[in-house]
Design a protein that fits this description.
Elements lengths: L4 E5 L4 H12 L3 E5 L5 H8 L3 E3 L14 E5 L8 H8 L3 E4 H9 L3 E6 L4 H14 L5 E8 L4 E4 L5 E6 L13 E4 L7 H4 L2 H12 L5 E5 L12 E6 L7 E8 L5 E7 L2 E7 L5 H17 L3 H10 L8 E5 L4 E5 L4 H14 L5 E5 L4 H15 L4 E4 L16 H4 L6 E4 L5 H7 L4 E5 L8 H12 L5
Parallel strand pairs: 1-2, 1-4, 2-3, 4-5, 6-9, 6-10, 7-9, 10-11, 11-12, 12-13, 17-21, 18-19, 18-21, 19-20
Antiparallel strand pairs: 7-8, 13-14, 14-15, 16-17
Helix pairs in contact: 5-8, 5-9, 8-9, 10-11
């Protein structure tokens, strides 16, 4: 079909906005709806994409014959605009399906996993881009190197963050793929751990060339036609692993990358922390399978600046530091806290956490509490509901009661700035996938005013 316009319902989502930008770059007219303004929607508007924030069918393009409507499954089924386009003959397609269509006919390099996929896919895209070969990329975060979640290259090579939510990644047909983790998540969609992990096995079965799995994940060779390889930061039995691992005084890892083609010596990871080092091994593995030059891979890992809201350091002074991170799963929290301890050993760590979704809180309350207990002080906020209605008996309290950190506090989001003003901060980190990111600028400004009074 010869589409002239693409209309997005839920355009402000990180995955949706990348596709919107893609079609805008292709010369189509792009517009859409989102529930609330954000930095991302404002960026889209600055790029010439019309965005509105009221559920109003009059904004839907009238030319249904030449308008493609893309929606995210996070939108309620009874949303007015979605009902309107469905009932009136528009071509309506889920985000996951359109991403599958865009990547058809290209060499697709896909990164999946409960966590680690955004950082790993963004690093993979950067390595290929920085090598001079270039690629297209649809990312689940904003790359600091490119200030975007989209790259558009000239070669038919596309790097994709393969999202398991709503089984979206089963629309892809990768030539090479990485699976970083299979810890349970989205149980509101999958029901149980077995079904969740089976989806990753089904994803692996769609890969045609090589599938690179973090060593120890429950995937065997049955029903998988691709070559199975493994990676690990430290295990020498993995096909791709690091040796002679060192950490410099800023928390950056340096290692030798060992694989069956030899050794890449003295790889320095451009972003600090253990999990970034492990992700860099995965990214190097997928790039080596893609045929990239080893030295170019080493250079790309070193020049990677990271992803917005992934161990994102906003203040780093001798007396105080402030970090923001998207972690919203127990394993992500535990990994981030461990990395922060690497970067700032022996310092007092205050963690602010906003739980995301009632179902996730219900399913993983014990895991959240255990991970957060790795901090010295925990400030816990109310649940950010996103697409969900409240569940009786489920609140932040069920996490709070299980936290064993030396200090803990349960407050409402509206009380956070007042509370932080009272704190004697050393290392502060904010965690969450909800709207806790709205506090980044106020917290940064407060810290600079309070702890660096001469900083103008």
């Amino acid at each position: 079909m010869d589409w002239k316009e693409v209309y997005f319902i839920g355009i402000g989502g990180i995955g949706m906005s990348a596709i919107a930008r893609y079609y805008k770059r292709k010369g189509l007219k792009v517009s859409g709806y989102d529930k609330t303004p954000s930095d991302l929607t404002r960026a889209l508007e600055e790029e010439g994409i019309d965005v509105h924030y009221t559920d109003d069918e009059s904004y839907v393009p009238a030319d249904k014959e030449h308008t493609l409507v893309v929606y995210t499954p996070a939108i309620p089924h009874d949303m007015g605009e979605l009902r309107y386009v469905t009932d009136n003959g528009y071509k309506v397609i889920k985000r996951s399906a359109i991403l599958g269509e865009i990547t058809r006919g290209q060499e697709c390099l896909a990164i999946a996993g409960t966590h680690g996929k955004t950082s790993t896919s963004t690093l993979t895209a950067h390595i290929i881009e920085a090598s001079g070969l270039g690629c297209s990329a649809f990312l689940g975060g904003i790359s600091k190197n490119y200030n975007s979640n989209l790259l558009v290259g000239q070669r038919p090579v596309v790097v994709v963050e393969a999202d398991e939510f709503d089984r979206s990644f089963l629309q892809l047909r990768p030539s090479v793929a990485v699976i970083t983790a299979m810890d349970p998540d989205h149980l509101d969609i999958y029901g149980d751990l077995d079904s969740y992990q089976q989806a990753f096995r089904d994803f692996a079965a769609l890969v045609s060339g090589s599938v690179i799995i973090k060593e120890g994940l429950p995937i065997d060779g049955s029903h998988i036609k691709a070559k199975i390889l493994t990676y690990s930061l430290e295990s020498p039995s993995a096909d791709f692993h690091a040796s002679d691992i060192r950490i410099d005084n800023t928390g950056h890892y340096i290692y030798n990358l060992v694989w069956n083609g030899g050794v890449i010596a003295n790889v320095k990871v451009g972003t600090p922390g253990r999990f970034n080092a492990e992700n860099s091994v995965a990214a190097a593995a997928i790039c080596l399978c893609h045929g990239l030059d080893a030295e170019k891979i080493k250079e790309g890992i070193a020049s990677f600046q990271g992803v917005v809201r992934r161990l994102d350091i906003h203040v780093n002074e001798p007396s105080v530091a402030y970090i923001d991170d998207y972690a919203h799963h127990p394993q992500e929290l535990a990994s981030a806290i461990r990395s922060i301890r690497d970067i700032f050993p022996g310092r007092k760590l205050t963690a602010v956490f906003q739980p995301h979704l009632y179902t996730r809180t219900r399913d993983f309350a014990q895991g959240f509490a255990q991970a957060l207990s790795g901090a010295d002080k925990v400030i816990l906020l109310d649940i950010y509901p996103a697409r969900e209605e409240p569940i009786p008996g489920v609140s932040s309290q069920i996490i709070f009661d299980k936290i064993t950190a030396p200090e803990k506090l349960l407050i409402k989001k509206e009380q956070l700035m007042e509370q932080l003003e009272k704190e004697d901060l050393d290392i502060l980190v904010t965690f969450g996938a909800g709207n806790i990111d709205r506090f980044i600028v106020p917290i940064t400004d407060m810290i600079k005013r309070k702890y660096q009074p001469d900083n103008k």
